[in-house]
Amino acid sequence: MQQHHQILIIGGGNAGISTAAQLLRKRPALDIAIIEPSEKHYYQPAWTLVGAGTFDINDTVRSEASVLPKGVHWIKDAATRFEPDQHKVSTASGQEYTYDYLVVAPGIQLNWHLVKGLPETLGKNGVTSNYSFELAPYTYELIKGLKAGDKALFTSPGTPVKCGGAPQKIMYLAADYLRKHGLLGKTSVEFVSAGSVIFGIKKYADELMKKVNEYGIQLHFKHDLVEINGAAKTAVFKVTDTEGITKLVTKQFDMIHVVPPQSAPDFIRNSPLANAAGWVDVNKATLQHTLYPRIFGIGDATSTPNAKTGAAVRKQAPVLVKNLLALIDGEPLPATYNGYGSCPLVVGYGKLILAEFDYDNKPTETFPFDQSKPRWTMWALKKYVLPWMYWNRILKGTA
Ligand SMILES: Cc1cc2nc3c(=O)[nH]c(=O)nc-3n(C[C@H](O)[C@H](O)[C@H](O)COP(=O)(O)OP(=O)(O)OC[C@H]3O[C@@H](n4cnc5c(N)ncnc54)[C@H](O)[C@@H]3O)c2cc1C
Predict the structure, then answer these.
(1) What atom in ligand 1 is closest to the CA of residue 314?
(2) I want to staple 306 with a disulfide (CB 3.0 to 4.6 A). Which of 50, 115, 278, 341 is the partner?
(3) Helices 166-180/202-215 angle, 10° precision
(4) Do 4-108+264-338 and 112-254 fold alike per CATH?
(5) 163 catalytic, yes or no?
Protein backbone atom coordinates (compact mmCIF):
# COMPACT_ATOMS: atom_id res chain seq x y z
CA MET A 1 0.00 0.00 0.00
CA GLN A 2 1.13 3.55 -0.74
CA GLN A 3 2.75 4.96 2.42
CA HIS A 4 2.81 8.63 1.47
CA HIS A 5 -0.21 10.84 0.82
CA GLN A 6 -0.59 14.48 0.00
CA ILE A 7 -3.33 14.80 2.63
CA LEU A 8 -3.74 12.29 5.44
CA ILE A 9 -6.89 12.46 7.58
CA ILE A 10 -7.15 10.79 10.98
CA GLY A 11 -10.73 9.65 11.60
CA GLY A 12 -13.53 8.95 9.12
CA GLY A 13 -16.38 10.25 11.28
CA ASN A 14 -18.50 13.33 10.70
CA ALA A 15 -15.52 15.70 10.49
CA GLY A 16 -13.08 13.51 8.55
CA ILE A 17 -15.56 12.50 5.84
CA SER A 18 -17.00 16.03 5.42
CA THR A 19 -13.50 17.45 5.06
CA ALA A 20 -12.39 14.86 2.51
CA ALA A 21 -15.58 15.29 0.48
CA GLN A 22 -15.30 19.08 0.40
CA LEU A 23 -11.61 18.96 -0.52
CA LEU A 24 -12.29 16.62 -3.44
CA ARG A 25 -15.21 18.74 -4.68
CA LYS A 26 -12.85 21.69 -4.91
CA ARG A 27 -9.83 19.76 -6.26
CA PRO A 28 -10.60 16.26 -7.57
CA ALA A 29 -6.93 15.49 -8.23
CA LEU A 30 -5.90 15.66 -4.55
CA ASP A 31 -4.36 12.48 -3.13
CA ILE A 32 -6.24 11.91 0.15
CA ALA A 33 -6.13 8.97 2.57
CA ILE A 34 -8.23 8.45 5.71
CA ILE A 35 -7.04 6.33 8.61
CA GLU A 36 -10.21 4.92 10.21
CA PRO A 37 -10.44 1.59 12.06
CA SER A 38 -14.23 1.23 12.16
CA GLU A 39 -16.25 -0.68 9.52
CA LYS A 40 -19.28 1.37 10.59
CA HIS A 41 -20.19 5.05 10.39
CA TYR A 42 -22.82 6.42 12.78
CA TYR A 43 -25.24 9.33 12.76
CA GLN A 44 -25.01 9.91 16.52
CA PRO A 45 -27.41 12.89 16.88
CA ALA A 46 -30.38 10.55 16.29
CA TRP A 47 -29.48 8.35 19.27
CA THR A 48 -31.45 10.72 21.52
CA LEU A 49 -34.57 9.99 19.45
CA VAL A 50 -33.78 6.24 19.43
CA GLY A 51 -33.66 6.37 23.24
CA ALA A 52 -37.16 7.84 23.18
CA GLY A 53 -38.52 5.21 20.77
CA THR A 54 -39.10 7.63 17.92
CA PHE A 55 -36.23 6.75 15.53
CA ASP A 56 -35.02 3.39 14.19
CA ILE A 57 -31.49 2.58 15.41
CA ASN A 58 -30.77 0.85 12.08
CA ASP A 59 -31.20 4.19 10.30
CA THR A 60 -28.30 5.65 12.33
CA VAL A 61 -25.60 3.37 10.90
CA ARG A 62 -24.08 2.73 7.47
CA SER A 63 -20.93 0.98 6.37
CA GLU A 64 -17.82 3.18 6.41
CA ALA A 65 -17.13 2.05 2.85
CA SER A 66 -20.45 3.53 1.70
CA VAL A 67 -19.70 7.02 3.08
CA LEU A 68 -16.07 7.32 1.94
CA PRO A 69 -15.88 9.82 -0.92
CA LYS A 70 -14.90 8.23 -4.22
CA GLY A 71 -11.16 8.42 -4.79
CA VAL A 72 -10.18 8.51 -1.10
CA HIS A 73 -7.79 5.77 0.07
CA TRP A 74 -9.12 4.03 3.17
CA ILE A 75 -6.44 2.84 5.58
CA LYS A 76 -8.43 0.53 7.85
CA ASP A 77 -6.28 0.93 10.92
CA ALA A 78 -6.05 3.08 14.06
CA ALA A 79 -3.54 5.91 14.34
CA THR A 80 -1.41 5.53 17.46
CA ARG A 81 1.53 7.94 17.25
CA PHE A 82 2.51 11.24 15.66
CA GLU A 83 5.99 12.40 14.69
CA PRO A 84 5.13 15.83 13.33
CA ASP A 85 8.73 16.85 12.62
CA GLN A 86 9.04 13.84 10.30
CA HIS A 87 5.44 14.31 8.97
CA LYS A 88 4.78 10.77 10.07
CA VAL A 89 1.88 8.84 11.66
CA SER A 90 2.16 5.27 13.01
CA THR A 91 -0.75 2.86 13.30
CA ALA A 92 -1.85 -0.01 15.55
CA SER A 93 -0.80 -2.59 12.96
CA GLY A 94 2.75 -1.20 12.92
CA GLN A 95 2.57 0.72 9.64
CA GLU A 96 3.98 4.20 9.13
CA TYR A 97 2.46 6.81 6.84
CA THR A 98 3.88 10.15 5.77
CA TYR A 99 2.02 13.18 4.51
CA ASP A 100 2.39 16.67 3.13
CA TYR A 101 -0.62 17.85 5.18
CA LEU A 102 -2.42 16.24 8.08
CA VAL A 103 -6.03 16.69 9.28
CA VAL A 104 -6.71 15.33 12.76
CA ALA A 105 -10.36 14.36 13.42
CA PRO A 106 -10.62 11.32 15.72
CA GLY A 107 -13.57 12.60 17.81
CA ILE A 108 -13.89 12.46 21.59
CA GLN A 109 -13.16 9.52 23.89
CA LEU A 110 -15.88 8.07 26.14
CA ASN A 111 -14.33 7.17 29.51
CA TRP A 112 -16.89 4.72 30.88
CA HIS A 113 -14.20 3.18 33.09
CA LEU A 114 -13.84 6.39 35.13
CA VAL A 115 -17.15 5.65 36.88
CA LYS A 116 -16.51 2.71 39.21
CA GLY A 117 -18.74 -0.27 38.45
CA LEU A 118 -20.25 1.31 35.31
CA PRO A 119 -18.70 -0.86 32.53
CA GLU A 120 -19.88 -4.05 34.27
CA THR A 121 -23.50 -2.95 34.59
CA LEU A 122 -24.12 -1.02 31.35
CA GLY A 123 -27.08 -2.42 29.45
CA LYS A 124 -28.60 -4.16 32.46
CA ASN A 125 -29.95 -3.40 35.96
CA GLY A 126 -31.65 -0.27 34.64
CA VAL A 127 -28.35 1.35 33.59
CA THR A 128 -28.27 2.87 30.11
CA SER A 129 -26.77 5.57 27.91
CA ASN A 130 -27.68 7.14 24.58
CA TYR A 131 -23.94 7.70 24.07
CA SER A 132 -23.70 4.17 22.70
CA PHE A 133 -25.23 2.67 19.56
CA GLU A 134 -25.76 -0.63 21.41
CA LEU A 135 -27.45 0.96 24.44
CA ALA A 136 -29.72 3.66 22.98
CA PRO A 137 -32.58 1.17 22.31
CA TYR A 138 -32.32 -0.04 25.95
CA THR A 139 -33.02 3.52 27.12
CA TYR A 140 -36.50 3.28 25.58
CA GLU A 141 -37.07 -0.14 27.12
CA LEU A 142 -36.36 1.39 30.52
CA ILE A 143 -38.55 4.46 29.95
CA LYS A 144 -41.46 2.22 28.92
CA GLY A 145 -40.96 0.13 32.06
CA LEU A 146 -41.19 3.04 34.52
CA LYS A 147 -44.03 2.76 37.07
CA ALA A 148 -45.57 4.94 39.77
CA GLY A 149 -43.13 5.16 42.69
CA ASP A 150 -40.07 4.57 40.50
CA LYS A 151 -37.10 6.90 40.35
CA ALA A 152 -35.33 7.85 37.08
CA LEU A 153 -31.94 9.60 37.23
CA PHE A 154 -30.25 11.44 34.34
CA THR A 155 -26.59 12.32 34.86
CA SER A 156 -24.17 14.78 33.29
CA PRO A 157 -20.41 14.69 33.96
CA GLY A 158 -18.00 17.51 34.81
CA THR A 159 -15.91 17.08 31.63
CA PRO A 160 -16.56 18.53 28.19
CA VAL A 161 -18.99 16.25 26.31
CA LYS A 162 -20.17 15.94 22.75
CA CYS A 163 -23.58 17.54 22.43
CA GLY A 164 -23.89 19.27 25.78
CA GLY A 165 -27.68 19.11 25.53
CA ALA A 166 -27.91 15.32 25.14
CA PRO A 167 -27.78 14.55 28.90
CA GLN A 168 -31.02 16.47 29.42
CA LYS A 169 -32.87 16.01 26.10
CA ILE A 170 -33.62 12.37 26.88
CA MET A 171 -34.84 13.42 30.32
CA TYR A 172 -37.48 15.76 28.86
CA LEU A 173 -38.56 13.01 26.46
CA ALA A 174 -38.85 10.54 29.35
CA ALA A 175 -40.89 13.07 31.36
CA ASP A 176 -43.15 13.70 28.37
CA TYR A 177 -43.60 9.93 27.96
CA LEU A 178 -44.63 9.72 31.63
CA ARG A 179 -47.03 12.64 31.14
CA LYS A 180 -48.69 10.90 28.19
CA HIS A 181 -49.08 7.75 30.31
CA GLY A 182 -50.53 9.50 33.38
CA LEU A 183 -47.39 8.97 35.45
CA LEU A 184 -46.06 12.51 35.71
CA GLY A 185 -45.68 13.41 39.39
CA LYS A 186 -45.96 9.72 40.32
CA THR A 187 -42.58 8.67 38.92
CA SER A 188 -39.69 10.80 40.07
CA VAL A 189 -37.39 12.35 37.44
CA GLU A 190 -34.10 13.88 38.58
CA PHE A 191 -31.30 15.67 36.70
CA VAL A 192 -28.09 14.96 38.61
CA SER A 193 -25.34 17.06 37.07
CA ALA A 194 -21.73 17.94 37.86
CA GLY A 195 -22.42 21.34 36.31
CA SER A 196 -23.91 24.34 38.07
CA VAL A 197 -26.56 25.54 35.60
CA ILE A 198 -29.14 23.95 33.31
CA PHE A 199 -27.70 25.69 30.22
CA GLY A 200 -24.95 28.28 29.74
CA ILE A 201 -27.02 30.82 27.79
CA LYS A 202 -29.80 32.63 29.66
CA LYS A 203 -32.20 32.93 26.74
CA TYR A 204 -32.38 29.12 26.38
CA ALA A 205 -31.91 28.36 30.09
CA ASP A 206 -35.07 30.36 30.93
CA GLU A 207 -37.17 28.28 28.53
CA LEU A 208 -35.63 25.03 29.75
CA MET A 209 -36.49 25.98 33.35
CA LYS A 210 -40.13 26.36 32.30
CA LYS A 211 -40.03 22.74 31.08
CA VAL A 212 -38.25 21.57 34.24
CA ASN A 213 -41.06 23.12 36.31
CA GLU A 214 -43.83 21.89 34.01
CA TYR A 215 -42.55 18.30 34.29
CA GLY A 216 -41.73 18.59 38.02
CA ILE A 217 -38.12 17.56 37.45
CA GLN A 218 -35.81 17.78 40.47
CA LEU A 219 -32.44 19.43 39.79
CA HIS A 220 -29.23 18.53 41.63
CA PHE A 221 -26.14 20.45 40.55
CA LYS A 222 -22.48 19.91 41.53
CA HIS A 223 -23.20 16.17 41.70
CA ASP A 224 -20.54 14.16 39.85
CA LEU A 225 -21.29 10.47 39.29
CA VAL A 226 -18.35 8.40 40.59
CA GLU A 227 -19.74 4.90 41.17
CA ILE A 228 -22.66 2.64 40.25
CA ASN A 229 -23.71 -0.58 41.90
CA GLY A 230 -26.01 -2.17 39.34
CA ALA A 231 -27.24 -5.06 41.46
CA ALA A 232 -28.15 -2.76 44.38
CA LYS A 233 -29.41 -0.06 41.96
CA THR A 234 -27.47 2.69 43.68
CA ALA A 235 -25.40 5.52 42.27
CA VAL A 236 -22.77 7.44 44.22
CA PHE A 237 -22.15 11.12 43.51
CA LYS A 238 -19.31 13.36 44.65
CA VAL A 239 -21.16 16.47 45.77
CA THR A 240 -19.44 19.84 46.11
CA ASP A 241 -21.11 22.42 48.36
CA THR A 242 -20.92 26.21 48.07
CA GLU A 243 -17.76 26.29 50.23
CA GLY A 244 -16.09 23.78 47.90
CA ILE A 245 -16.29 20.96 50.46
CA THR A 246 -17.03 17.53 48.94
CA LYS A 247 -18.95 14.56 50.29
CA LEU A 248 -20.34 11.37 48.80
CA VAL A 249 -24.11 11.02 48.36
CA THR A 250 -25.79 7.74 47.39
CA LYS A 251 -29.02 7.72 45.39
CA GLN A 252 -31.32 4.80 44.65
CA PHE A 253 -32.63 4.41 41.11
CA ASP A 254 -34.92 2.24 39.02
CA MET A 255 -33.45 3.63 35.81
CA ILE A 256 -30.33 5.72 35.29
CA HIS A 257 -29.24 7.38 32.04
CA VAL A 258 -25.50 7.94 32.28
CA VAL A 259 -23.41 10.33 30.22
CA PRO A 260 -19.81 9.16 30.65
CA PRO A 261 -16.87 11.46 31.43
CA GLN A 262 -15.15 12.37 28.16
CA SER A 263 -11.71 13.52 27.02
CA ALA A 264 -9.50 13.79 23.99
CA PRO A 265 -8.47 10.29 22.80
CA ASP A 266 -5.44 8.94 24.71
CA PHE A 267 -3.24 8.79 21.58
CA ILE A 268 -3.88 12.52 21.10
CA ARG A 269 -3.37 13.42 24.77
CA ASN A 270 -0.01 11.64 24.79
CA SER A 271 1.18 13.23 21.56
CA PRO A 272 3.09 16.41 20.67
CA LEU A 273 -0.12 17.69 19.05
CA ALA A 274 -1.95 18.10 22.38
CA ASN A 275 -2.39 21.21 24.49
CA ALA A 276 -2.15 20.99 28.30
CA ALA A 277 -5.72 19.68 28.52
CA GLY A 278 -5.05 16.97 25.91
CA TRP A 279 -6.93 18.40 22.89
CA VAL A 280 -5.44 18.91 19.40
CA ASP A 281 -4.03 22.39 19.84
CA VAL A 282 -5.35 24.48 16.97
CA ASN A 283 -5.87 28.17 16.35
CA LYS A 284 -9.54 28.69 17.20
CA ALA A 285 -10.16 30.86 14.13
CA THR A 286 -8.13 29.12 11.38
CA LEU A 287 -8.12 25.52 12.76
CA GLN A 288 -4.41 25.30 11.93
CA HIS A 289 -2.19 23.66 14.55
CA THR A 290 -0.47 26.22 16.79
CA LEU A 291 2.99 24.57 16.43
CA TYR A 292 2.88 22.57 13.19
CA PRO A 293 1.56 24.61 10.26
CA ARG A 294 0.97 21.56 8.02
CA ILE A 295 -1.46 20.12 10.56
CA PHE A 296 -5.12 21.07 11.02
CA GLY A 297 -7.70 19.82 13.50
CA ILE A 298 -11.48 19.62 13.26
CA GLY A 299 -14.40 18.25 15.27
CA ASP A 300 -14.72 17.03 18.84
CA ALA A 301 -10.99 16.34 19.40
CA THR A 302 -9.78 19.92 19.04
CA SER A 303 -9.01 22.64 21.55
CA THR A 304 -11.54 25.10 20.06
CA PRO A 305 -13.84 26.22 22.90
CA ASN A 306 -17.14 25.71 21.04
CA ALA A 307 -19.99 23.30 21.80
CA LYS A 308 -18.75 19.95 20.47
CA THR A 309 -21.43 19.11 17.91
CA GLY A 310 -21.91 17.98 14.35
CA ALA A 311 -23.40 21.42 13.74
CA ALA A 312 -20.02 22.94 14.65
CA VAL A 313 -18.27 20.54 12.28
CA ARG A 314 -20.54 21.75 9.47
CA LYS A 315 -19.25 25.31 9.94
CA GLN A 316 -15.64 24.26 10.60
CA ALA A 317 -15.19 22.09 7.50
CA PRO A 318 -15.40 24.86 4.86
CA VAL A 319 -13.03 27.01 6.94
CA LEU A 320 -10.47 24.22 7.21
CA VAL A 321 -10.79 23.38 3.50
CA LYS A 322 -10.28 26.98 2.36
CA ASN A 323 -7.30 27.42 4.67
CA LEU A 324 -5.65 24.12 3.76
CA LEU A 325 -5.98 24.81 0.03
CA ALA A 326 -4.55 28.31 0.56
CA LEU A 327 -1.60 26.80 2.43
CA ILE A 328 -0.97 24.36 -0.43
CA ASP A 329 -0.99 27.34 -2.81
CA GLY A 330 1.41 29.28 -0.58
CA GLU A 331 -1.16 31.95 0.23
CA PRO A 332 -2.28 33.45 3.58
CA LEU A 333 -5.10 31.57 5.32
CA PRO A 334 -8.30 33.40 4.34
CA ALA A 335 -11.08 31.79 6.45
CA THR A 336 -12.08 32.03 10.10
CA TYR A 337 -14.45 29.99 12.27
CA ASN A 338 -16.56 32.00 14.73
CA GLY A 339 -17.27 29.17 17.18
CA TYR A 340 -20.75 28.43 15.85
CA GLY A 341 -22.39 25.51 17.59
CA SER A 342 -25.97 24.39 17.74
CA CYS A 343 -27.93 22.39 20.24
CA PRO A 344 -31.31 21.07 19.16
CA LEU A 345 -32.87 20.87 22.63
CA VAL A 346 -35.67 18.35 22.40
CA VAL A 347 -38.03 19.21 25.27
CA GLY A 348 -40.78 16.69 24.51
CA TYR A 349 -42.24 14.64 21.66
CA GLY A 350 -42.77 17.10 18.80
CA LYS A 351 -41.17 20.01 20.71
CA LEU A 352 -37.73 21.45 20.14
CA ILE A 353 -35.80 24.58 21.12
CA LEU A 354 -33.07 25.23 18.55
CA ALA A 355 -30.17 26.88 20.39
CA GLU A 356 -27.52 28.33 18.09
CA PHE A 357 -24.59 30.39 19.37
CA ASP A 358 -20.95 31.37 18.82
CA TYR A 359 -17.71 31.48 20.87
CA ASP A 360 -19.09 34.38 22.93
CA ASN A 361 -22.32 32.47 23.72
CA LYS A 362 -24.13 35.04 21.59
CA PRO A 363 -27.24 33.51 19.97
CA THR A 364 -26.74 33.28 16.18
CA GLU A 365 -30.13 32.00 15.09
CA THR A 366 -30.86 30.86 11.53
CA PHE A 367 -34.63 31.36 11.38
CA PRO A 368 -36.63 34.61 11.51
CA PHE A 369 -38.46 33.64 14.73
CA ASP A 370 -37.53 33.23 18.38
CA GLN A 371 -35.86 29.80 18.41
CA SER A 372 -35.94 29.58 22.21
CA LYS A 373 -39.66 28.74 22.00
CA PRO A 374 -40.39 25.01 21.63
CA ARG A 375 -41.70 24.28 18.11
CA TRP A 376 -42.87 21.32 16.07
CA THR A 377 -41.13 22.64 12.94
CA MET A 378 -37.74 22.49 14.69
CA TRP A 379 -38.56 18.94 15.87
CA ALA A 380 -39.29 18.03 12.25
CA LEU A 381 -35.96 19.56 11.28
CA LYS A 382 -34.15 17.25 13.73
CA LYS A 383 -36.17 14.12 13.07
CA TYR A 384 -36.55 14.27 9.30
CA VAL A 385 -34.47 17.01 7.64
CA LEU A 386 -31.10 16.80 9.42
CA PRO A 387 -30.63 13.01 9.14
CA TRP A 388 -31.35 13.25 5.40
CA MET A 389 -28.99 16.21 5.09
CA TYR A 390 -26.28 14.33 6.94
CA TRP A 391 -26.22 11.28 4.69
CA ASN A 392 -26.98 13.08 1.41
CA ARG A 393 -25.36 16.49 1.71
CA ILE A 394 -22.96 16.87 4.65
CA LEU A 395 -21.05 13.63 4.05
CA LYS A 396 -21.03 14.37 0.32
CA GLY A 397 -19.42 17.76 0.88
CA THR A 398 -22.32 19.84 -0.40
CA ALA A 399 -23.62 21.26 2.90
C1 LIG B 1 -26.20 11.00 22.06
C2 LIG B 1 -25.60 12.03 21.15
C3 LIG B 1 -26.39 13.06 20.69
C4 LIG B 1 -25.87 14.05 19.86
N5 LIG B 1 -26.69 15.02 19.39
C6 LIG B 1 -26.22 15.94 18.52
C7 LIG B 1 -27.09 16.90 17.96
O8 LIG B 1 -28.30 16.91 18.22
N9 LIG B 1 -26.58 17.81 17.10
C10 LIG B 1 -25.25 17.81 16.75
O11 LIG B 1 -24.84 18.64 15.95
N12 LIG B 1 -24.38 16.90 17.29
C13 LIG B 1 -24.84 15.97 18.15
N14 LIG B 1 -23.99 15.01 18.66
C15 LIG B 1 -22.53 15.18 18.48
C16 LIG B 1 -21.96 14.73 17.14
O17 LIG B 1 -22.30 13.39 16.86
C18 LIG B 1 -20.44 14.90 17.18
O19 LIG B 1 -20.13 16.21 17.60
C20 LIG B 1 -19.80 14.65 15.82
O21 LIG B 1 -19.99 13.31 15.44
C22 LIG B 1 -18.30 15.01 15.86
O23 LIG B 1 -17.65 14.60 14.70
P24 LIG B 1 -16.16 14.05 14.77
O25 LIG B 1 -15.82 13.64 13.37
O26 LIG B 1 -15.29 14.97 15.51
O27 LIG B 1 -16.27 12.71 15.67
P28 LIG B 1 -16.97 11.35 15.28
O29 LIG B 1 -18.10 11.58 14.35
O30 LIG B 1 -17.26 10.67 16.56
O31 LIG B 1 -15.86 10.55 14.46
C32 LIG B 1 -14.60 10.22 14.98
C33 LIG B 1 -14.04 9.08 14.12
O34 LIG B 1 -12.66 8.88 14.45
C35 LIG B 1 -12.40 7.50 14.49
N36 LIG B 1 -11.23 7.25 15.32
C37 LIG B 1 -11.18 7.16 16.67
N38 LIG B 1 -9.95 6.84 17.07
C39 LIG B 1 -9.19 6.75 15.94
C40 LIG B 1 -7.82 6.44 15.71
N41 LIG B 1 -6.99 6.14 16.71
N42 LIG B 1 -7.37 6.45 14.42
C43 LIG B 1 -8.21 6.74 13.39
N44 LIG B 1 -9.51 7.01 13.56
C45 LIG B 1 -9.99 7.02 14.83
C46 LIG B 1 -13.70 6.92 15.04
O47 LIG B 1 -13.82 5.53 14.73
C48 LIG B 1 -14.75 7.77 14.35
O49 LIG B 1 -15.16 7.21 13.12
C50 LIG B 1 -24.49 13.99 19.48
C51 LIG B 1 -23.68 12.93 19.93
C52 LIG B 1 -24.23 11.96 20.75
C53 LIG B 1 -23.37 10.81 21.21
Answers:
(1) 11
(2) 341
(3) 30
(4) yes
(5) yes
Say how far apart CA 204 and CA 373 lie, in whole Å.
Answer: 9
Query: pLDDT tens for residues 2-20?
Result: 699 999 999 999 999 999 9
Residues touching ligand 1 (Cβ under 6 Å) are 10-16, 35-38, 44-45, 47-48, 78-79, 105-107, 130-131, 162-163, 166, 265, 267, 299-301, 308-311, 313, 342, 344
Q: Does domain 4-108+264-338 sit in CATH 3.40.50.300?
A: no
Atom of ligand 1 at shortest range from CA of 92: 41
Q: How many CB atoms lie within 10 A of CB 227?
A: 15
CATH code of 112-254, in short, is: 3.50.50.60
**Catalytic residue (one of 163, 194, 226, 259):** 163
- Amino acid identity, position 216: G
Cα(335) to ligand 1 centroid in Å equals 24
Calculate what percentage of the chain has a pLDDT beyond 90: 98
Q: What is the pTM of this model?
A: 0.97
Q: State yes or no: is 261 an active-site residue.
A: no
- HSE of 295, CA atoms in CB hemisphere, 13 A: 24
Where are the domains positioned within the chain? 4-108+264-338, 112-254
The residue whose CA has the least distance to atom 49 of ligand 1 is: 13
pLDDT digits (tens, 9 = 90+) for 164-204: 999 999 999 999 999 999 999 999 999 999 999 999 999 99
